[in-house]
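Interim report, section 4.2 (structural modelling).
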Amino acid sequence: MANVAWPQEGDRRVIGKRISRVDGPVKVSGEAKYSYDINRKGMLHAKAITSPYALAKLISVDLSAAEGVAGYVAAEIQEDLIGDEIRYCGQVVGAVVAETEEQAIEARNLVKLNVEVLEHQVVDSDLAKFEGRVGERTDGDVDKAFEAAAVVSQGQYGMATITHCCLESHGQVIEITKDNELLAWPSTQNVSGYAGQFGDAVNIPQNKVKVDCQHMGGGFGSKFGVDNWGILCAKLAQKTGRPVKLMLERDTELKVAGSRPSAFANARVGLHPNGLISAVEAEVWGTGGNGGFRALPIPYVFTKVENTKLLTKGIRTNTGSSRAWRAPAHPQGCLITMSAAADAAALMGMDELDFFLANTALTDRPEVYREELRIAANIIGYRQKAHLRDNLTSGPVKRGLGISLHTWGGRGHPSECDVSIHSDGTVEAKLGSQDLGVGTRTCVGMVVAETLGLPHAAVNVQLGRNAYPASGASGGSTTIGGISVSSRRAATDALNALLAVVAGRLRTAADNLEAVDGHIRQMDKMDNRISWKDACAALGANTINKRGVNDPNASVEEGLIDAGVGGVQIADVSVDVETGVVSVNEMVAVQDIGLIINMKLAESQVYGALIMGITYSLFEESVYDPKTGQMLNADMEFYRLAGIKDVGKLKVHMMTGKGYDERGVIGLGEPPVISPGAAISNAVANAIGVRVPHLPLTPDRVIDALQKGGNIA
Amino acid sequence: MAKEQNHSDFSEMSRRGFLKGIGAGGAATGLLSDASMHDAEAAQKGLKGPGEIPITLNINGKTQRVRVEPRVTLLDLLRNRLDITGAKKVCDKATCGACTVLLDGDPVYACSVLAVEAEGRAITTVEGLGSSVNLNKLQKSFVDRDAQQCGFCTPGFVMASTAFVRDNPNASVDEVREGLGGNLCRCGTYAGMMLAVSDAAKNKGGSNG
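Predicted structure of the assembly:
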């Protein structure tokens, strides 16, 4: 009889192996159909009507010129916006649909918004603009602690607003059939939760909304909703009786389809004579644009610091709303904490590695961080390369090392999965999850294959449709825990049903059987066995169908999943003090993540997070013009992503084995993307002797910091 | 990196084509004055459009006859009219390379080439390489090295790499970094791509390569 507990290391035949993603071949051959690629018969093309104003009262929308364009079919305006405020430039207020994409653009460009322009506010770095309630959290007595401290360091730290910049922009294709079914192909992180969001907008019952998303081109936390462009698309499909494709154009995508809040802080850190942090105080401000701004986790990771004070001031701006961006609030909290802490260590003349090693005592998992710090330091050759901050390398190109620690939860979400075993031996797993490119499809197949004693390719995994059992939205590193347990439970139950069928034939009890290497065999007499195919043939006309459910609390109790991980990153950078250009020579990431289902894909996640982290550390920033309220770099030339030559040498080490594997499965999407900003900023400070206060670490900011001579008290 | 196109071949070219061409790496002032000259010349020769005109394209070895407005880009023609969707629309401004295809073997940004410009030239899209069940060496390397996550940039990288490996069979790591500088990835798959392209360069000369 099979049970759901994860197999021990020596018994794992599929789990933990370096298996290539199963959808790799369709991606490298262009066969993978993304939502943007769906072309339906008779399909119309829609383009969003967007606001050129950062703040204005919308009086009416004049479509008369647009209607004259050849190929124009219809338009839809979001009615409740008429008479209301448009709150940021790029805001989608409607859409025009035409026979061709070119005609849709031509017509849309002729739409005129009649507005009363109001005074906007897009500046996020000016505390004088702050209105509203200050969030406050205190613990202990910071004033007393700073008085008693051996060293008190004070500085300003922060990072600009960035966007998600999903390569596949937000949007969908929608078709309403003659049976009044709504077929939707959205680019979404939320297949099972998508249909319910139409509400009564199109008056189609939820059980007649069919969602399909087989491949999606990046979400990073910004693609959970139907959004108003989804509603507009559905209404246009209904109005025209034809399928409609509405994908956002790049400029709109960058302005409105999600951003990560900026965060700045005046922070103070006090140290005991032994280098342990005694107090942390931070006054934090920033903006979530038209959305909210939440308190940051400060002090980050060092949660056992006794004296802390955190003030939070959210500034509302007339810019697009923030959305969850990988590890919401953590990169900001991490940057501010780790930078301020490293500045305090430098002020004390303490080596950064020694400092962080000592302060692991103030974390929730000191042993894990200590082990990871030692491994990371060895990989990058820290002891050979390290120098104190006031001991710069010679020449105009300075080198430095910087360290950061991070944490994340990553507990699996609720998920259901069906596993079927057919009499011809074929196996299917179905679930309403989605594969964002992290390997969900591959991992479900691996878990089911491990459970059934089959090679991973033997399992056909179907996901991306809401017709399948509901599985949680993919956000917050919750997917791998959710889907690995639901598929494990379904496969285990299905196998046990099969064992019961073949037990008689093998003349033993079902609970004395196991599935290994393509056979069902007797545990204590391994040559008493039959092949998988023969076992399944015994099903005759029947198919085994079992549903597995991940109830997160129960699965944590059973040790199948867990939450709470630690990771460490060290960056090695060069800074040209004549030009201000920062280059990352090397970065190492060491990550604890519980039981790893697929080592190759896990490593890819961490490499990707490092690269995304390098990108936001050095290049990314949504730049707004205070006077016009416009985003000045709403394209991919000036909203810069790192290219292949910008990322340096990257090294990834995953913690495995005793102390890690037995924790069960934990999510990985967020943790490694948290530390790069802090590690790189610390490395730059170590290289040039002064802190560059704000990310991205562009040449102008570096030169400015050099000219000011730093801000270490 | 996409090569600069030789615009002198195209007398029937709109200003839009020239402006988009500048994005691919031309000297702006020189091209603008060329564009004005071309407009005048084109008018004399009887420029077709702005309505649909018939053109014949050679795509992945197959001849395709289509009617298309001169303003339609090669990318939009492939994706919207022919349902050849491997090349992706991402920046639509000749920056990210997700739409890279080969024109007579040279990598170009299909978002910045007009469909009418591609007439008479061999167009190769990612669909013209190996299919998912018959991948070529480079595609296999992309899979083996996990040089993709969401995969939306992947076809563009595969096409840029195809031309790069062909032209630089013994490329060093630094040369690979330079050679793939015309494409962008958001998920951060560069580590895998470096290995994939290096493998493919090393393995070049084998069958189906």
